[in-house]
C-alpha cells in the first residue's frame, strides 16, 4: 500500500530536549516536505527536499533541521524545542509533473506538545 | 512574499445548494493545488491545476485556474453532507519549477441536511 508514515504520532516533551520526528514514504517520490498546522494559521511549510541531499527552507524554518540521506526518509529534527513549536506536523511526498510538484500524499500527522 | 487568501474561511450551507470557494494569490504562478481535510485527519489531494484555464472535475467538485487573475475557484454543485470538510488551496512559489508551496488558511465547510 502506497503511504507516508510518521513516527511518533503523539509526543509530549520538555523545552530543550532534542527530538526527531521520522517520515518515510514507499512511493519512490523525489519531493518531500514538512508542514506545521496551527489553528487560524493553516498549513505552513517548514522545509522541503527535491531529492537526496537537496533541501531548502520553507516559510517557517527557524528552530528546525532536516536531512535527506535516503530517498524514502526525511526526518524533522528539533535541536532545542520550545513551547512555540507545539503544533500538528505533517510530512508529505510527491513526484514531479510538468517540471513541478505533483499531488502530495500526506502522512497521518504528529501532534507535538512542548512544555 | 507569496500570499494565498481563501474566501470564505467559514461556510455553512444546505444540501442541494451550489457554492464557490475562492483562492487568490499574490505572485505569478501557474500551478495550484486543492486539498481536503476531514476533522482530526490528514490532508487528501483533490486537484492539481497546471496551467491557465485548467479545469478539473471530480463528482460534485470542480476546480479551475485563471493565472492572469491569480485566482482559482472550487465549485460545489448540489452539495451533500459528505462534502463537509476543510478545503485548502496551495500555490507553488516559483511559478512552474519544483519549489516551496504556500497554503491558504483553509475554508471550513459545513453542509447541513
User: What count of helical segments of chain A does DSSP give?
Assistant: 0
In N-to-C order, the SSE pattern of chain A is EEEEEEEEEEEEE
Beta-strand content bin of chain B: over 45%
Instruction: Bin the helical content of chain A.
Output: under 10%
Globally, the shape of chain A reads: globular
Largest interface: A-B, 31 and 24 residues
* Secondary-structure class of chain A: mainly beta
Tell me, briefly, the overall form of chain B.
globular
Structural category of chain B: mainly beta
Arithmetic mean of pLDDT of chain A: 95
Overall pLDDT of chain B? 92
Stretches of chain B where pLDDT is under 50 for at least 5 consecutive residues are none
Cα(first) to Cα(last) distance of chain A is 36 Å
Taken as a percent bin, the fraction of beta residues of chain A is over 45%
What is the percent of helical residues of chain B? under 10%
Q: Describe the biggest sheet of chain B?
A: 6 strands, mixed
Please tell me about this protein's structure.
The complex is a heterodimer of chains A (115) and B (113). Chain A is mainly β. Chain A is 0% helix and 53% strand. In chain A, a hairpin with a 2-residue loop joins strand 10 and strand 11. The radius of gyration of chain A is 13 Å and the shape is globular. The mean pLDDT of chain A is 95. Chain B is mostly beta strands. Chain B contains no helices and eleven strands. The relative contact order of chain B is 0.33. The mean pLDDT of chain B is 92. The interface between A and B is medium-sized, with 31 and 24 residues.
